[in-house]
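Bug #77: duplicate submission created two jobs. Keeping one. Sequence:
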Amino acid sequence: MELVSILAFLSAVAWLLVIGVIALVVVRAVRSRGIKGVGGIAGGGLLIAGTVVLAILLSTLAAGLVFIQPNERGVVISATQGGIRNEALQPGLHWVVPFAENVIPYTIARQTYTMSVVPEESDVFRDDAVESRTSDGQIVHVDASVIFSINPEEVVDVHIRWQNRYINGMVRPIVRGVIRDAVAQFGIEQVYSTHRLELTEKISAELQRRFEMNGLELVDFVVRNIAFSAEYADSVEQKQIAEQQAQQAAFVVEQRRQEAEQARQVAQGVADAAVIRAQGEAEARLIQAEAEAEALRMLAEAIGQNPDILTLEYIQKLAPNIQVMLVPTDNPFLLPLPSTNP
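Kept job's structure:
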C-alpha cells in the first residue's frame, strides 16, 4: 500500500537527516564556532534529539503498519505470542507490534508448476519430464502441469511445515511420485490410448488427497504429453504400418467380394427376368389358346343353330376383297361346301 511505502521512505529520510545533523554538529563543534540560529552546541543537541525522535516515530509506524493484498494472507512471526500467531492476517491494513512482530505474506492465488521435456517450459529450466515405467516394463516420459493454491485457512500450517519451500519441497516431489505410481498401474497401450483419461483422473484424485493433507488445494492437473523411448516409438510405427497394410488388404478383399456379389445379383436379375418373361409368354399363349378354343366352341354352337353361318364363313374365306360374285343358276356355289355333319 502507498501509505506503508511512504512511511518507510520518510523513515529512511529521517535517519539520513539524523546522520547529517550529527555530522554537522560535530564539524561545527570541532571548529568551535557553534551553530548559528539554534543556540550553539545546545541548539545542535536539541536538533539532533528532534530528528532522532522523528526518525524513531516514522520507523515505528513503518514497522507496525502492514498492508495485506487481496490475494494474500499474512503470517505473523511474533516474539510475544509463542513465536507465531495462530491466525493469518486477512487482506487490508493491520497494526503489529513494531520490531517484535514480523509479517510474511503468502499468496493464495493459483499457481502453476510445469514439468516438461522442453527446458523453456519447465519451472526448473531443464528437461524435467517425469520418467515412469508402465506395468509391462516400458518407459514413458510424462509432461504435466499442476495448478494449485494455498488453502487460505491453512496458511499458518503451511508456513510451519514448509515456509517458502512448499513448491520444491512438497509440490514437486508429490506430483512426480503420484505420476509414477499411477503410470505403473497401466500397460503401455493403455497409457497413450484407451485409458489415458482414466490415468489422468486417477492422478488428479490422489493429488487432491495429498495436497489437502499439506494445506494446498488442487485446481487442475493436465497431462500435456506422453512420449516413449525411441525403440518403442519405432515398434509402434512398424505396427501401424502393418495394420494399415492389413486394412488395405482387407479393403481390397471386401471390394472384390462386393464386385462378385454385384455380378451375382446382376446375373440373378437377368435370370429372374428371363423366367418372368417366359412365364409371361406361356401365360399369354395359354390365354390365347383358351380364347381360340372358346371362340371355336361358340362358333360351333352358332353353326349348329344356323348352318348358313358356315356358308357365310366359307364365302368370306374365298376372297376377302370380293364383294359380289356371279355363279351359274344351276350351281349356286363354285366349290362344294364342307359338310357340317360329323
